[in-house]
Write a structure and sequence with these properties.
Number of strands: 18
Structural class: mainly beta
Number of helices: 3
Shape: globular
Largest sheet: 14 strands, antiparallel, barrel
Amino acid sequence: MNRPNLPYPRLAPLLWVVFAVLAFRPAPAGAVGGTAGEALLLMSSARSEGLLASVAGGGGLNGLASNPASLAGQTYRAVSGSYTALLAGASLGQLEAAFPVGPMVLAVQLGNFDAGSIDLMGDSGAVRKVQIQNDIVAGGTVAVPVVAGLSAALTMKWYQSTLAETYQATAQMFDAGLMYSLLGGDLAFGGAVRNIGGRLKYYSSAMSVPVEYSAGSSWTAWHADEAAIMVLGEGAKRVGTPAQYSFGIETVFLGSLFLRGGVRIENGVSAASIGAGVRFRAYGFDFARVSQPGLPVSSRVSAEVRF
């Protein structure tokens, strides 16, 4: 393979440093966009960010990133999108659509991470903006009921990352998930494995995308008419990083107003989140803020339309 020419060859070492910091350092607990690849491949919704523990929380498209089996049993078609504005002009966005086909539910996803741009000077002294990193992920999900109360799902993903508008790598990987509910759905257990088989290769350097394992439960502790309280717990482990433990709570009022909060602990560092959502007929809107020591607060918004 021939080495591609950089627009400014003398700055190649700088671009490799940017690549190493942005793409492959371990993400801090709860950080939205802490690593480009991880944040994008999770493609989480504002509901998931507001709870920080949603592998067993269901929610259809709103739980797809945490556990693809969240889609199982959905009886309506839906389209949703989420967006986060990060530091220095960086952004993270996604679109998803789901539709039932007999007992199955199918979904497609598209996400983008834009790390912003920097000014680079060439040998001639000319300065131009170069995009630091741009990542795209596309996926397809199939969720099916297995036996009473048990559902399974598989998501296939295609991932492409471009550094400094020059170096490019692609990878194919998949997510798998299970969901089991009982007591009329008031108690649920879920488990998922994400980013299986992903391996990125830039020029002569190849690195695996971190695989993440998670398992948890949700319990609707109280419900009456159009009100409910759900409590969630989850444990997760990324290869090469300490285990993290998350706890969340979601309350529903009048069947259309949702308030959420969560906490995540990883290696002694904790993240906290708050969130809210509203549903009006076929329309839904969710908002979440996640904070932790040493990092700026991040905000995520999601919208959904049901058909």
